[in-house]
Design a protein that fits this description.
Elements: H1 2-27, H2 31-44, E1 50-58, E2 61-68, H3 71-82, E3 89-92, E4 95-96, H4 109-121, E5 129-135, E6 138-147, H5 148-159, E7 166-175
Parallel strand pairs: 2-3, 2-4, 6-7
Antiparallel strand pairs: 1-2, 5-6
Helix pairs in contact: 2-5
Length: 178
Amino acid sequence: MQKLTRALAVAGLLLGLTLSASVAQAADRPDSWVTLKTKLALLTADGIDTWDLNVDTTNGAVTLHGKVASEDAKKKAETVAAGIEGTKSVKNLLQVVPKPNREALEDADDVVKSNVEKALAADVALKGVEVASVNKGVVLLRGTVDTLEAHVKAVDTVSRVHGVRRVSTNVKTTKETD
């Protein structure tokens, strides 16, 4: 019986140390990093079509602002935000608003690619980003940027180009924080 009690005490101690280490690791992420990672995840998540997106983080508490087209997208956005390392809580202020009508005729992928390349070329901070492919309006980006902020800016810039339905990214960031 004494061995079982001792084993349970050791297991409890190890669990406590593991949990406190996880909390300490999450606390190590600055709010700006959590904000940028959350925004990047939301901009590239399948099934979340956001616009006027804003993410604020204070002491690990993430607040989502903006618009989504459905209640499911709102719930999924909250789940995605909660999964970001360093997020302690999520306040979901996203508004469910029908998406503005798209034009009946969509641009061909080669036109979308050309327009995306022009948008990227217009910003010197995005010079390391290029279009890997465009398929039915889904743009895949590749390349390298210096900061996470530039990575988010690239995805946001591309998502605003006419004909882009979604952005996926394989862009590498050389610095995690500024």
